[in-house]
Amino acid sequence: MTTRTDSAKADPTIESLDDLLAPFAGGEKPQASWRIGTEHEKFVYRGGDHRAPSYDEPGGIRDLLMAMTEFGWRPVEENGKVIALSGSDGTISLEPAGQLELSGAPLEHLHQTCAEAGRHLRQVKEVGERLGVGFLGLGMWPDKARAEPTCRSCPRAAMRSCSATCRASAASAST
Fold first, then answer.
1. Which pTM value belongs to this model?
2. Could you give the CA distance from residue 120 to residue 89 in angstroms, rounded to a whole number?
């Protein structure tokens, strides 16, 4: 997402459809450069009690991320904590509500994205079975109200870079 900034010059007046479309046309890539990228989010839950695992607990998010390195994923660290993974299939990161997300590599066609997502899901399933965690591909926790904070898994919870919701959730989880 781009955040609008003020410029020193006046914005042009839009008087035609061509005027409206010109900024978009200027940003177009040639068809040979078109790519698709997969984003696949899933909540991680403990098999025994169905709660979200914390970052530091045995079998938690840190252990999940580190186990994924068996498949060639490389850790991305911030302040000594693994916050994401990078590899040929893109990036695996943590979302503010605790979701584990694959942000896939830019690929040429759907068959490649299908194969990429399939590899990722096989990997997390294999690691999840060893750690006793499962994955739920939903937009929000099914047992939480929208206003209820859910993130216990974010290693950034005490840091400025984490969202206010995540910090509030981590603070309430530790009390």
1. 0.72
2. 8
